[in-house]
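W.,

You were right to be curious about this one. When I first looked at the sequence I had no strong expectations either way, so I just let the prediction run and decided to look at it fresh. Below is the sequence, 68 residues in total, followed by the output.
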Amino acid sequence: MIELGYPRSTCFFWAGLSGPPGIPANIVKILENAAKAVDAIPESFEKLDKTGLETVLPAADDYRKFGC
Protein backbone atom coordinates (compact mmCIF):
# COMPACT_ATOMS: atom_id res chain seq x y z
CA MET A 1 0.00 0.00 0.00
CA ILE A 2 2.91 2.35 0.70
CA GLU A 3 4.15 1.82 -2.85
CA LEU A 4 0.72 2.85 -4.13
CA GLY A 5 0.83 6.09 -2.15
CA TYR A 6 -1.15 5.07 0.92
CA PRO A 7 1.43 5.20 3.74
CA ARG A 8 -1.11 5.08 6.56
CA SER A 9 -3.53 2.48 5.30
CA THR A 10 -4.69 -0.32 7.51
CA CYS A 11 -5.75 -3.65 6.07
CA PHE A 12 -7.78 -6.26 7.83
CA PHE A 13 -7.65 -9.96 7.08
CA TRP A 14 -9.28 -12.71 9.01
CA ALA A 15 -9.43 -16.45 8.84
CA GLY A 16 -11.24 -19.00 10.91
CA LEU A 17 -11.89 -22.67 11.41
CA SER A 18 -15.23 -24.05 10.37
CA GLY A 19 -16.88 -27.38 9.82
CA PRO A 20 -20.03 -28.86 8.35
CA PRO A 21 -23.45 -28.08 9.83
CA GLY A 22 -24.25 -30.27 12.80
CA ILE A 23 -20.64 -30.93 13.76
CA PRO A 24 -20.69 -32.56 17.21
CA ALA A 25 -20.06 -30.21 20.14
CA ASN A 26 -17.15 -32.34 21.40
CA ILE A 27 -15.36 -31.92 18.05
CA VAL A 28 -15.95 -28.15 18.15
CA LYS A 29 -14.45 -28.09 21.64
CA ILE A 30 -11.40 -30.09 20.49
CA LEU A 31 -10.76 -27.63 17.64
CA GLU A 32 -11.31 -24.64 19.91
CA ASN A 33 -8.87 -26.00 22.49
CA ALA A 34 -6.27 -26.78 19.81
CA ALA A 35 -6.43 -23.21 18.47
CA LYS A 36 -6.03 -21.84 21.99
CA ALA A 37 -3.07 -24.15 22.62
CA VAL A 38 -1.27 -22.94 19.48
CA ASP A 39 -1.97 -19.32 20.38
CA ALA A 40 -0.49 -19.92 23.83
CA ILE A 41 2.87 -21.01 22.40
CA PRO A 42 5.12 -17.96 22.82
CA GLU A 43 6.99 -18.61 19.57
CA SER A 44 3.73 -18.60 17.59
CA PHE A 45 2.62 -15.32 19.10
CA GLU A 46 6.05 -13.72 18.60
CA LYS A 47 6.13 -14.66 14.90
CA LEU A 48 2.67 -13.24 14.31
CA ASP A 49 3.45 -10.13 16.32
CA LYS A 50 6.55 -9.41 14.21
CA THR A 51 4.38 -9.34 11.09
CA GLY A 52 1.86 -7.02 12.71
CA LEU A 53 -0.82 -9.69 12.87
CA GLU A 54 -3.06 -9.89 15.89
CA THR A 55 -4.87 -13.05 16.91
CA VAL A 56 -8.39 -13.02 18.25
CA LEU A 57 -9.88 -16.29 19.35
CA PRO A 58 -13.61 -15.96 19.94
CA ALA A 59 -15.54 -18.81 21.49
CA ALA A 60 -17.29 -21.05 18.96
CA ASP A 61 -20.71 -19.57 19.77
CA ASP A 62 -19.43 -16.01 19.30
CA TYR A 63 -17.81 -17.00 16.00
CA ARG A 64 -21.10 -18.54 14.87
CA LYS A 65 -22.99 -15.36 15.79
CA PHE A 66 -20.49 -13.39 13.70
CA GLY A 67 -22.00 -15.14 10.72
CA CYS A 68 -19.57 -17.92 9.98
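Here's what jumped out at me. The mean pLDDT is 83. And, maybe more interesting for your project: The two ends are 28 Å apart (CA to CA).

Coffee later to discuss?

I.
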